[in-house]
Amino acid sequence: MMRVIRFFYLICGAGVLLLSSQTATIKETKAKPTAAISGKDLYREYCAVCHGGNGRGDGPAARALKKTPTDLTAIAKANNGRFPEATFLAVMRGERDIPAHGSGEMPIWGSIFSKMSPTPEMTQTRLHGLMNYIEEMQAK
């Protein structure tokens, strides 16, 4: 009887191990066009899936990425307490690489917003709105 119980636990343990060893994958899709210009709305639509609702890099897709998404609440802290607006915008436009982004998993939102915006001014409005929202997220 003990032998049967041990065998049962062994089979259950192997099943749990097999289930937990499956890797998460991300289905890549094109960004849905939006009329939103609010930084908060843009963040929820495009950023939260990886960076999480609170900006700490714990979104539902984060597990499937090769690199953990940046903790967006710590940007100012990493820059001597100041939010680096020019650097942030350069990264968002694809003008500056961030090594932590690794293989380019993070989209270049400037070009994506440009394709869905009727004017360059709308693209800039979206980028600045998103930047302002993320700047508000900074840990105090």
Structure description:
The protein is mostly helical. The protein has a single domain (29-136), classed as Cytochrome Bc1 Complex, Chain D, domain 2. The protein contains five helices and no strands. It has helices spanning 2-20, 39-51, 85-93, 109-116, 120-136. Helix 2 (39-51) crosses helix 5. The longest helix has 19 residues, at 2-20. The model is unreliable at 1-22 (pLDDT under 50).
Topology (elements, then pairings):
Layout: H1 2-20, H2 39-51, H3 85-93, H4 109-116, H5 120-136
Helix pairs in contact: 2-5, 4-5
Kindly report the average pLDDT value.
79
How many domains, as an integer?
1
Shape descriptor reads globular
Q: Look at the structure and give the CATH class.
A: Mainly Alpha
Helix count equals 5
Helix content: 40-55%
Over the alpha carbons, how many angstroms does the gyration radius reach? 20 Å
Q: Strand share of the residues? A: under 5%
Largest sheet: none
User: How far apart are the first and last residues' alpha carbons, in Å?
Assistant: 60 Å
Second rung of CATH, namely the architecture:
Orthogonal Bundle
Helix/strand/pairing category: mainly alpha
Total number of strands: 0
CATH topology, which one? Cytochrome Bc1 Complex, Chain D, domain 2
- Listing every helix as H and every strand as E from the N terminus to the C terminus, the arrangement reads HHHHH
* Low-pLDDT segments: 1-22
